[in-house]
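Hello again, I could really use a second opinion on something today. For a while now I've been wondering how a particular protein folds. Please have a think about how the structure follows from the sequence. Here's the protein in full, and shout if anything looks odd to you:

***
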Amino acid sequence: MKAKYIKTMDFIFEDVEILNADTEEKLLHKIKESEILKIKNGTEIEYINPDYIMFFGLEEK
């Protein structure tokens, strides 16, 4: 699933792909349960602690 942006307390990730959630509902569940998000940021694979996510915007399908 693609995200336009993910704003955390310290960083803004733009135009990233969320690798371990393929629907908005799964993403919201992972955030609620504090499960680490795996994202592809350019060529890098990064992991985000969802407790630090302030807000996000997903790409329209």
Observations:
- The mean pLDDT is 96.
- The radius of gyration is 10 Å.
- Residues 15 and 35 are 21 Å apart (CA to CA).
